[in-house]
Amino acid sequence: MKRGIAAALATFCVSGVLAEDAKPWDVSASVGVSMTSGNTDTMSVNPEIRASGAYGKNEIKLRALYNYGEKDDVISERNAKGTAQYNRLLGERAYAYGSGEVGFDDPANINYRAIVGPGAGYYFVKSDRMNLSAEAGASLIAEETETDLAGGGADTENSEEIALRVAQKFDMKIGAGAKVFESVEYLPQADDFDIYLLNAEVGLEAAVNGGLSMRMTLANAHDSEPAPGKEKDDTTFKAALVYVFGRK
């Protein structure tokens, strides 16, 4: 089932992209680094790449990020995630989409989590200055989690569930070199709405000089049923230096 959905999604995306002439991508790379020493020694690094392209009736958004942190020489944060979404415009504002993501989170005992599925969306506002959209669809969530055993070692558990997906996205340019953005994604399990994932992010990005910008983001990931002994919420604040390729 999982392979069938992934194959259908890949075919859907590729057929749409090849139908139009390619145009330049909007690509940015960022990195945030922090270190403290003294009573507590901490270190963290957070590289990220974002890319988006629009070709006629096709839109693609890609994102890859990695977070690593230590506290007193003990790993406190190590996770990564890659996301991709393809939109095929059906009119001026309505669109069909296929989305997918895969990642892991060591402190949360998630060896891997993959989410893939189709859906439909609508732009309530769509312009060069502002975008506001909502999406609804279905997703397959496949994951492997670990439970730490009292005597050492860990017990792994694999699961595959069908979930509904409801999402909302917003971005707006402020002046010539700044923008704000926000997104919310809700994924309840189709047969039990008490089991769900809820992801939210809000951020501000402002140009500094040439292709350089500063980006600040606040994100929260809520898992209603985390691995045993783990917290339901992970909240992350990041401040990063961003380089936007092609901007002068």
Task: Give an overview of the whole structure.
The protein has 248 residues and is mainly beta. It has one domain (2-244): monomeric porin ompg (Porin). 6% of the residues lie in helices and 72% in strands. The protein has 1 helix and 12 strands; from the N terminus they run H-E-E-E-E-E-E-E-E-E-E-E-E. Strands 1-2-3-4-5-6-7-8-9-10-11-12 form a 12-stranded antiparallel beta barrel. The longest helix has 16 residues, at 2-17. It is flat. The chain starts with a helix and ends with a strand.
Question: Which descriptors apply to this entry?
Answer:
single chain; flat; 12 strands; 1 helix; Porin; 12-stranded antiparallel barrel; mainly beta; 248 residues; 6% helix
Short summary:
The chain is mainly β and 248 residues long.
Describe the secondary structure blueprint for this structure.
Layout: H1 2-17, E1 26-36, E2 42-55, E3 58-71, E4 74-89, E5 94-105, E6 110-126, E7 130-148, E8 154-174, E9 178-189, E10 192-209, E11 212-223, E12 233-244
Antiparallel strand pairs: 1-2, 1-12, 2-3, 3-4, 4-5, 5-6, 6-7, 7-8, 8-9, 9-10, 10-11, 11-12
Quaternary class: single chain
C-alpha Rg (nearest Å): 19 Å
Mean pLDDT: 87
Number of domains: 1
Main sheet: strand order? 1-2-3-4-5-6-7-8-9-10-11-12
| Helix/strand structural class | mainly beta
Kindly report how far apart the N and C termini lie.
47 Å
DSSP helix fraction: under 10%
What is the CATH C-level name? Mainly Beta
CATH topology: Porin
For the biggest sheet, the summary is:
12 strands, antiparallel, barrel
